[in-house]
Amino acid sequence: MKQLLLSQKQVLFFVLAGAMSAVIEVGTFKFFSVQLPPIFAWEKNLYGVHFPLSNILSTSCGIISNYFFSIWFVFERGKHSKRREFAYFIAISAISTVLSLMFFQIFYSSAFRNEYFDLGFFVFSPEMLSKIAAIVLVSVLNYSVKKRIIFSG
Fold it and tell me: Ranges for the GtrA/DPMS transmembrane domain (predicted)?
């Protein structure tokens, strides 16, 4: 078991960094999805897009925190300069943001439409379940792309 963990150390650290970023992203999404609708009436449904500003702002928080977690704990610096590395990271993350928003809409409109998940001490709403599912799906893609393109040595 110890040998397996050591051989997959980078994947394990990526999962931990991703989990920390996901907590930041989900937490800020919860905050924005509660605070923004009273200010912006269109936030709950903008031409069929649910919580667009909350998604964009929370995903941005997750992306920035993930960049720092990635360079501190997961990947070694690649062949690119810091400026280019950050630009590539942001470009790939922008694409991931669009994918995450699309997956959120799909999950929110169909898979978790009226689903609530009750843990006894906390209830996950359809918005939260959709956000978490979208994060998990996009994370798999992010690891392989970031490892091969940004942080390749």
Answer: 14-151
Q: What pLDDT, on the 0 to 100 scale, is given for residue 71?
A: 80
Contact between residue 127 and residue 114 where contact means Cβ atoms under 8 Å apart: no
Q: Is the distance from CB of 82 to CB of 112 less than 8 angstroms?
A: no
* Phi and psi at residue 45, to the nearest 5°: -160, 100
pTM: 0.70
Rg (the chain; Cα; Å): 17
Question: Quick check: 14 and 74 in contact, CB under 8 A?
Answer: yes
Of the candidates 142, 25, 137, 146, which has an alpha carbon nearest to the alpha carbon of residue 88?
Answer: 146
Q: What is the pLDDT of residues 40-61, one digit of tens each?
A: 888 888 888 888 899 889 988 9
d(CA 114, CA 144): 33
Residue 141 identity (one-letter amino acid): L
Given pLDDT bands bounded at 50, 70 and 90, which one contains residue 20? very high
- For 42-55, the DSSP string reads GGG-BTTB-SHHHH
Nearest to 100 by CA among 10, 18, 14: 18
What's the pLDDT at 153? 54
Domain boundaries along the sequence of the chain? 2-150
**Terminal C-alpha separation, the chain:** 28
